[in-house]
User: What shape does this take?
Amino acid sequence: MHKDVKEILYTQEEITQKCKELGKQITHDYQGKDVILIGLLKGSVPFLAELSKYIELDVTFDYMDVSSYEGVESRTITIKKDIDQDVSGKELLLVEDILDTGKTLSTVKAMFEERGAASVEIVTMLDKKEGRTYPIEAKYVGYEIPNAFVIGFGLDFNEKYRNLPYVGILKEECYQ
Assistant: This one.
């Protein structure tokens, strides 16, 4: 365990098992549909990579770089990189590491709906309902988590800790 981690919430093995379950459900729900998995950079990359192994459909990937955090505070939404393809009439599945305030995902979902996507749903590895300030829910949720600062498996604090193979709680002295 990393020296800055207070506690491991989910091991790599638990995350893999959850991705298998989510992949099976997504495969069932999207049979016969044209699906684009849209990863929100950078945090979603490990989750998208693991989850996509278990989705037994012909899907395409695309990525957006959307920022709303600076340190531990949510700021203005900034789109640094948009996706490369037309979404008209397509089924979109936004892949995110954590659904917290809902600010980023509310903005991105509305943007794709305006662009004419057939549907826009969310799959998130972690759902922190206590942090929600926008009325949005994920269709697919790996784990509901307590109101703690989590890192690992894509989640960061100032760009560090993304490479940890598990999800853990960051020690408070690291961000206060």
Remarks:
- The longest strand covers residues 59-70.
- The radius of gyration is 16 Å.
- Residues 125 and 142 are 4 Å apart (CA to CA).
- The chain is about 20% helix and 35% strand.
